[in-house]
Amino acid sequence: MKRRFVALFALVLCLSPWGCRAGGKLLKQALFPTDVQIVRYHVKANLESLEEFTRRLYLKNPKFEKDLKMRKDKINGIFHGGELPQTDYTDKPSHMVLEAAFTANPTYQDRIFLLGLGLAKSIRETYHVEGGPVVSSMEISLEQLEKLYHNISHVKWRLKVYRDEGGDALFLTNEPGEDGYINMGYEVILTEVLTRIQDDIFLRGGSPPKLFFTMSTLFLSIAL
């Protein structure tokens, strides 16, 4: 009742010649509480971070897609609604796409496309990005947030330990330097994403799961 009054007052204020800016701000705050604004910011920031993550992986691992225009088109398809290449995984849920990115012999050879697609899908499945605007953080499933946290943490772990048949890392993520190897920022990006997800879990009254990964650990299904 109080929120309805505040929204009505803000609307009336906005109709006045001097109060539109203040009234619009008040109306936004009344209709979209702080927790919703935080969650929306996190979704936007996480997708932007994962887009940068995917772009950096292509730069460091050009063998997965040598055509620069195709890389750009794929990133646009994943993160901005552009056309996606039709693969066996394009319409699969996120956990299956992520699994394919690390499998020994994926039917689609561009592992970076699969990894970026799986990560973007996992965000959209958790926050229901395509199902309309979130009006309350309580609409987001705590279980799905915990699964998302698990899966992205697992991606971070697999990037370090997964190898091909020749013993080389599936994805190159470090740059040789004078004093050893310099991390190219992938771990930092994923840590930032995980921190935002952790904040959303706290908003829902939960706590991030305690994680222990082995080579046999699987990605969890997020879509309900």
Task: Outline the structure in words.
The chain has about 220 residues and is mostly helical. The chain contains eight helices and two strands; from the N terminus they run αααααααββα. A two-stranded antiparallel ribbon has the order 1-2. Helix 3 packs antiparallel against helix 4 and helix 5 packs antiparallel against helix 6. The N terminus is likely disordered.
Poorly predicted runs: 1-20, 22-32
Q: In angstroms, what is the radius of gyration?
A: 21 Å
DSSP strand content: under 5%
What is the arithmetic mean of pLDDT? 82
Order of helices and strands: HHHHHHHEEH
Category by helix and strand content: mainly alpha
User: Strands across the major sheet, in which order?
Assistant: 1-2
**Shape, please?**
globular
Largest sheet: 2 strands, antiparallel
The number of helical segments is 8
State the helicity in percent bands: 55-70%
Number of strands: 2
Keywords:
single chain, about 220 residues, two-stranded antiparallel ribbon, 8 helices, about 60% helix, globular
In short:
The chain contains 8 helices and 2 strands, in the order αααααααββα.
How are the SSEs ordered, and which strands pair?
Elements: H1 2-15, H2 20-31, H3 34-60, H4 68-80, H5 94-102, H6 111-127, H7 142-161, E1 174-177, E2 180-183, H8 186-203
Antiparallel strand pairs: 1-2
